[in-house]
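Bug #77: duplicate submission created two jobs. Keeping one. Sequence:
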Amino acid sequence: MSAPEAHRAIDAIWHIESSRLIAALARVTGDVGLAEDFAQDALLAALRSWPETGVPDNPGAWLMAAAKNRALDHLRRVRRADRSHAEIGRDLEAERERAVADLDAALDDDIGDDLLRLVFTSCHPVLSREARVALTLRLLGGLTTAEIARAYLVPEATIAQRLVRAKRTLADARVPFEVPRGPDRDARLSSVLEVLYLIFNEGYAATAGDDWMRPQLCEEALRLGRILATLASSEREVHGLVALMEIQASRTKARTGPRGEPILLLDQDRGRWDHLLIGRGLAALAKAETSGPPGPYALQAAIAACHARARTAEETDWARIAALYGELTRASPSPVVDLNRAVAVGMAEGPAAGLALVDALRGEKALEGYHLLPGVRGDLLAKLGRPGEARAEFEKAASLAGNSREREVLLARAAVLGPVGRE
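Kept job's structure:
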């Protein structure tokens, strides 16, 4: 096997196996930073060995064995440091055999429990939102520092510093490597779901840069969401988030044109939607709606499902969508949700009704600088036959948009309207 072929194989295997290695090692060491170091040592060993020997039949077991040896060396050094010089000379072989047995037993425990512990640790609320996102992509997604930096359009050094600080914060705070129980579980699960949601949304509609979408982030969030749904199958909101991501991801191929330009929802070719993902999303939504009132993620998934079930844009049940946004407002109040509800009301009851709701939001501090507020207002004004005002709103929205592709769409909409001030 050539070196390039071996490296490609190692990259693919690492992407699958790294989180399993780190999760198992973190439980043994109690330190995610050390666990990642040991796993990285195993990766380096594979990079040195596999180009010559070939990829082993069970690469995951090979990597685990290499990481285990590194962890064993560390464990022996720690134990020796805690003993007197006289004790060090006695029973070294017995100690080694005992340490190997202890480590083997620990690493052979249920990997599913380890992964769940790693999810909750990476997304611990003691970390900032940005740190939780970066650490999750690093430890659970297997992304390199450079890949995370490219995905978020920030310098690699910034991500590196963020990761170092995150691991130091977890160690200093003595965050236990465990699945939380009792009242703490809901708050911690909420943090986990928020991180996956943020990662997916940044991939689905990038807030900055020249690309409308960053599919790698969507794929990572969805992959991790599916894993979480398997590990925490009794949590309805986990299924709600997975349902939302599956259905949203089904539109990926229809959301951009041949030059990467955005195609808005009502203009998309629905024949290009991925119906396998839609089916998976609807199945996950059914699990989220099994008992009790739906949570915020399940409600958003139900809204997405309304679009997925409509064979054409004209068949969309906007009244149902407006009602679901009303429920979402009560479950998770937010000016952004109110703005989305205004869009749905404008489609269901007419642009004047939608504009009245949008105008009521113009004083909201949370929406200051939010480009979609003037963008939505411009759309409603255009439908009401007020092109000059609409153009001004679209131009304002374009000036606030951070993504260049979205800015182009808004400026194009402004260009087809009359000059500002003329109706």
